[in-house]
């Protein structure tokens, strides 16, 4: 086996250099670097195969994963759980109705909590609310105030009567009546009536006060209320023509005070034991047309004196001192149109006397002594009479009617 001499090796180096120069001065690729590169590649390949991170893993990390897609889908849902399709801009968002949302919000537990809160707040307000002290009821007006108010109404021309129902009146209270003003007003009214009468005579007409003596007078009228000019009107002047005292006791002395009232027409005194002496001052009241004394102490003489009242038309009388003889006394009061006797023991014979009154229209008898025979005679002979027996009609009364 032959060996090359060591002198040949430089010759090969020179040959390589000559080849490099032939390439145009270009340097040949470094075989060692390629080799090293190839080695690195193979090494990388080995690392990939062994599960170590490599180039392919870096590429796959840049691609979106399925979890990221789900998260983006969740972001595209609104706060109420409604899915909004962001890809389709023309499609409106779907909203849950308010009623359904309220139903979903107000669960039974929340409702119970709300009710408890409201109840606690209500109880707290109720416990701490300001409590007003109840005001005491107003005191009822005193009798003196009521009496003064009625007198003022008379002076103002609002009322023409003194009517005491809820409070008593005594003799001294009657002295507080405005007698001076009433007398002045009555005087003016008299002058005005005289003036009207003169005008009626000049015109050939009938006088305003001319009336048939057989006809019953009516309560005060306002038919002469307008006189023209600046003259006062009759209705504007104060007048007290009615005195109705249902509470309290008026004696004969009080009757003297009542008799001073001018133009007095109607008097009713309950619970007042007026005697014949107390009745005497009242006989001067020529205008009186209704007298009501249900608890008097009158006798036949006192009843007979009523004939001095020319305009007396209605009489309601009760007295324990009267008997069947009162019928003869009443027969003398020929102006009467209506009679009401209370507790007077009138007999059948007395009834036949009463109906002889020339202008009698109504007959009321309470607790009388008339028998059925007497009533039959009355209904057959005087069917035109308006008869009441103990505040009601007799069953055989031709004038029977129902009172409301």
TrEMBL record:
Region: Disordered, residue numbers: 1-92, 198-232
Sequence ranges of Acidic residues compositional bias: 45-61, 70-91, 199-212
InterPro entries named among the record's database cross-references: LRR_dom_sf
Residue ranges the record marks as coiled coil: none
Compositional bias of kind Basic and acidic residues: 17-29
Biased composition (Low complexity): 34-44
Stored Gene3D superfamilies: Ribonuclease Inhibitor
Residue ranges of the TM segments: none
Name by which UniProt lists this protein: Adenylate cyclase
């Amino acid at each position: 086996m032959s060996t090359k001499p060591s002198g040949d090796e430089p010759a090969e180096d020179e040959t390589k250099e000559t080849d490099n120069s032939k390439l145009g001065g270009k340097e040949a690729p470094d075989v060692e670097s390629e080799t090293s590169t190839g080695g690195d590649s193979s090494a990388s390949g080995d690392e990939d195969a062994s599960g170590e991170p490599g180039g392919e893993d870096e590429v796959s990390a840049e691609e979106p994963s399925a979890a990221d897609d789900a998260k983006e889908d969740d972001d595209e849902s609104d706060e109420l759980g409604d899915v909004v399709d962001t890809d389709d801009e023309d499609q409106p968002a779907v909203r849950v109705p308010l009623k359904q949302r309220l139903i979903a919000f107000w669960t039974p537990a929340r409702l119970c909590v709300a009710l408890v809160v409201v109840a606690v707040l209500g109880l707290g307000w109720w416990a701490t609310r300001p409590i007003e002290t109840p005001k005491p009821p107003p005191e009822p007006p005193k009798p003196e105030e009521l009496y003064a108010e009625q007198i003022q109404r008379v002076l103002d021309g609002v009322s023409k009567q003194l009517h005491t129902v809820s409070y008593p009146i005594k003799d001294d209270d009657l002295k507080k009546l405005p007698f001076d003003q009433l007398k002045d007003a009555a005087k003016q009214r008299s002058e005005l009536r005289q003036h009207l009468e003169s005008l009626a005579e000049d015109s050939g007409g009938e006088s305003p006060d001319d009336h048939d003596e057989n006809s019953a007078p009516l309560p005060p009228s306002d038919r002469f209320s307008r006189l023209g000019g600046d003259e006062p009107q009759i209705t504007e002047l104060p007048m007290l023509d009615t005195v109705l005292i249902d509470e309290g006791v008026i004696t004969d002395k009080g009757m003297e005070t009542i008799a001073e009232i001018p133009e007095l027409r109607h008097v009713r005194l309950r619970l007042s034991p007026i005697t014949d002496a107390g009745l005497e001052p009242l006989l001067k009241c020529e205008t009186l047309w209704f007298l009501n004394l249900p608890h008097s102490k009158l006798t036949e003489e006192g009843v007979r004196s009523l004939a001095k009242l020319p305009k007396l038309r209605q009489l309601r009388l009760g007295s324990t001192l009267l008997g069947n003889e009162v019928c003869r006394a009443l027969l003398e009061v020929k102006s009467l149109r209506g009679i009401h006797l209370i507790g007077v023991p009138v007999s059948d014979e007395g009834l036949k006397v009463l109906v002889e009154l020339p202008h009698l229209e109504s007959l009321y008898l309470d607790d009388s002594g008339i028998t059925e025979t007497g009533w039959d005679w009355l209904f057959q002979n005087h069917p035109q009479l308006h008869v009441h027996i103990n505040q009601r009609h007799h069953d055989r009364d031709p004038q029977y009617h129902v009172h409301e």
